Amino acid sequence: MKNQMLDRPHSLRQSMAWLHTWGGLMACWALFAIFLTGTICLFEGPITQWMKPERTERMIGHDGDYSSGRAVAFAQNELAKVARGAHYWTIGLPNEDDPDVRIYWLANSRREGLRLDPVNGARIPPGADRRTEGGYHFITFHHEFHSGVVGSWIVGFLAMAMLTALVSGIIIHKRIFKDFFTFRPSKGQRSWLDAHNVAGVLTLPFQVMIAYTGLTLVYSLYMPAAILTNYPSKDAYSADLLQKPAHREESGIAAPVMPLDRLLPVAEARLKQEISLIHVEHPGDSMASAFVYGPEPSAQKQLAPGRGLIHFDAVTGAMLDVRLPEMPRGGLAQLTQEVLSALHEATFGGIIIKWLYFVAGIAGTVMIGSGAILFEVKRCQRALGEFGGATPRVYRLIEILNIAAITGLAIACIGYFWANRLIEADIAGRADLEVRAFFMLWILGLVHAAARPRRKAWIEQLAGIAMLCLLLPVLNAVTTGDHVIAQIGRGDWRNAGVELVAIAFGLAAIGVIRVIWPKKAFSQSELRLARMQAAK
Amino acid sequence: MAGLRHEAIGKAGRLMAALLGGYLFACAWAVFVAAVLPLPRPQAVLMATLTGFAAFLAIIILSFAFGSIWRWLMILSVMTLALAGSGLALSEVGA
Predict the structure, then answer these.
(1) What DSSP string describes A319-330?
(2) Are A68 and A264 spatial neighbours (Cβ–Cβ below 8 Å)?
């Protein structure tokens, strides 16, 4: 009977319990990281802004008269000077996240870029902003662990594990409705089970949705079978789906690009949207194309994002193709996919939806974290000896991984903000250094978890989180002179939001310390483990 | 101990069926559904792929719920081959 978890499953509920417990355990550490960083990157824009304080100063300084037409003219002037004969030009206009005009070009297979002042067209020196990945670090980590396609596959695998854990969790759940209203604090194992259930059950539709839409977001990577049995390549498929006009080949005949600012009123009248980006293919050739884009989906309110796009002849200004925002190409199927993507990325409904997602994301994070701790606490109350003589060592390993994955990762996340302020602003390769600081702190969390007794490790790491979170506004005030009161005073809720949320997390960490401070729960379980080790 | 090893092999078989078998089944499912959906071809391909992940999930759950692992492996292989074969044949006809 000792090895009951490995026995032949006698019922559906038993086999699902096995799947939920062990599948959940194997996936929970990485899933916790995906959920926490996914929740954080809802506010990628404000975080990036906070991490580039020099840019905030420029935003505050802007009061000249800005017109998008003049900004485009400045950009084209500059591109004609520095990027003659480039493969493409891109002009990004200022938006909520970025106060500057950005120009990019591809010359000799190298992508280059510059920033311009939108009011007077002057170049902004490259060192004006400190180099940082900003909030984008959390996005890259969330969907590929900073490791490219391999990382994407691992994340996809974990999303499937999440769905499996959710479905098996529902099957083994006896009282799904009663648990809506059940929370029994300070009852040891029961409290962890209740926390796991309340967080999971209340937000169940969200958790299923977020895992499934995470997969459909990159469906052509994860499941290309139907595409490749019907088309020679993924490009051929997407050209067919989106009814893209055939690619215009270069003619080799020189012809100047027309003044692009003249395209703006034409495009805006047709799309009934503000223009955010202009992309010119083969500038200087008589077959040059200009692609004029409407606002990014995140700036819109409706669920189906529909980014408008007009394809112009960049020499004559003739309209070659129009994609209206309310009529996405690819019919019902593409619309479905776009809605699923918008549901995952919360690119609809503005700030209120972002905050709702934030709360639901925290609930998902709590569900995963409390599930991991539940496994640990349950085994401490009553060891099941699943691993024979190695059981105590395996339990200890799970303990260490729990601490490192939960509080260790949280320290790495908030430490990343500290690294942004502490690493010198003009040092070479500082963006990489910040990301490296994030991973170093995480490894440090693992080492610390392994070196300290369980209760002390949890409490010390939580204290570290609390300290780093609560002192973040102080750090900012000391290093840049900007502080929460000044931010609120000038209506800068993006920067203030970052610091207020950090304070809230710091207070939450103190709250958790107060819950687990009583020695009772820990000492009992540690005694049992010690006894098991002695008996071996 | 022999029973334990037997069980471990059973669990490993289920895991293989769930992950590898489930993924192959989902691909076959997508190819088949893309061939039979009454939509323009690129849209049928997209819709079918979007449902493929649900098919994958169903196979993972079934792989652990099904009584006999060997019978399940047989059923899963037959279903996968049937879907892939008919899907490929039908999309040839359609093209």
Answers:
(1) EEEEE-TTS-TT
(2) yes
Q: Cα separations (Å) of A313 from A248, A251, A318?
A: 10, 13, 5
Q: How many angstroms away from the CA of A6 is the closest CA of chain B?
A: 7
Interacting residues of A29 by C-beta distance below 8 A, sequence separation 6+: A372, A401, A402, A404, A405
Separation between Cα atoms, residue A386 and residue A21, nearest integer Å: 12
Q: Give the phi and the psi of residue A110 in degrees, each rounded to 5.
A: -120, 130
Nearest Cα to Cα of residue A104 among A88, A128, A127: A88
Q: Residues of chain A whose C-beta is under 8 A from some C-beta in B?
A: 3, 6-9, 12, 15-16, 18-19, 160, 163-164, 167-168, 212, 215-216, 219-220, 222-223, 225-227, 229-231, 237, 240-241, 330-334, 336-337, 340
Among all residues of chain B, which has the CA nearest to that of A158? Answer: B19
Number of domains in chain B: 1
Contact of B46 with chain A, judged by CB distance below 8 Å, is answered with: yes
| Cα nearest neighbour of B10 on chain A | A8
Per residue of chain A (536 residues), give pLDDT as tens. 344 444 444 588 888 999 999 999 999 999 999 999 999 999 999 999 999 998 877 776 555 678 889 999 999 999 999 998 899 999 999 887 788 899 999 988 888 899 999 888 899 887 788 899 999 999 999 999 999 999 999 999 999 999 999 999 988 886 655 555 566 666 667 777 888 888 888 889 999 999 999 999 999 999 999 999 999 999 999 999 988 877 788 888 999 999 999 999 999 999 988 899 999 999 999 999 999 999 876 656 677 657 889 999 999 999 998 988 877 788 889 989 989 999 999 988 888 999 999 999 999 999 999 999 988 888 877 767 777 778 888 889 999 999 999 999 999 999 999 999 999 988 888 999 999 999 999 999 999 999 999 999 999 999 999 999 999 999 999 999 999 999 999 889 999 999 999 999 999 999 999 988 876 655 555 555 555 555 54
What's the 3-state SS for A423-475?
A: CCCCCCCHHHHHHHHHHHHHHHHHHHHHHCCHHHHHHHHHHHHHHHHHHHHHH
Strands (E), A54-187: 88-92, 101-107, 110-116, 123-124
Largest Cα separation within chain B, whole Å, is 57
Determine whether the interchain pair B10/A8 forms a contact, defined as Cβ–Cβ distance below 8 Å: yes
CA distance A360 to A284: 50
Residue A114 C-alpha, separation from nearest chain B C-alpha, in angstroms? 38
Across the strands, what pairs with A88? Answer: A106, A281
- What distance in Å separates the CA atoms of residue A398 and residue B69, rounded to the nearest whole number? 29
Which candidate from A3, A9, A334 shows the least CB-CB separation from B46? A334
CA Rg value for chain B: 16
Q: Does B52 touch chain A (CB under 8 A)?
A: yes
Distance in Å, alpha carbon of A125 to nearest chain B alpha carbon: 45
- Residues of chain B with Cβ-Cβ distance to A330 below 8 Å are 42-43, 46
For chain B positions 8-27, those within 8 Å of chain A (CB to CB) are 8, 10-11, 26-27
| Distance (Å, whole) CA A109 – CA A43 | 33
- Residue numbers of the domain that contains B10: 2-94
First-to-last C-alpha distance (Å) of chain B? 56
Pick from B28, B47, B65: CB nearest A333: B47
C-alpha closest to that of A408 among A432, A372, A379 = A372
